[in-house]
Specification:
Length: 118
């Protein structure tokens, strides 16, 4: 039986089409917690983009994680960062704005404006 990390990496291998990633270990800043590894794919989903996916965030407990444990993913093109949290909508080719974005002077958020609601 394969380990959890082996299953995770096997899944990434399948969905990436077998592209060889880079692995970047990140030490923890909290004693007693494990570090995180960022799995980085160059030129994914298209040329001149990077996609990074963490492994290790889900290994710790958090009181807000009642229905699952997340990992994080994000993509970057030419210095423009695109990242998302679980439950936030992310449309390919659009700018990511979190649901809890700062409210503007008319009470609408930047996110509402981006979605055409403000």
């Amino acid at each position: 039986m394969s380990t959890r990390v082996e299953q995770f990496l096997s899944h990434l291998d399948r969905i990436s089409g077998g592209i060889e990633p880079r692995y970047i270990p990140v030490e923890t800043s909290h004693p007693g917690l494990p570090g995180v590894t960022v799995v980085v794919y160059d030129d994914v989903p298209e040329p001149e983009m990077l996609t990074g996916i963490t492994y290790g965030v889900s290994l710790v407990d958090h009181p807000h994680w009642r229905f699952g444990k997340p990992e994080l993913s994000g993509a970057e093109r030419l210095g423009s960062i695109l990242a998302a949290q679980s439950g936030d909508p992310l449309l390919y080719g659009s700018r990511y704005v979190p649901k809890n974005a700062q409210k503007g002077p008319r009470g609408n958020s930047v996110a509402d404006h981006q979605r055409g609601q403000g």
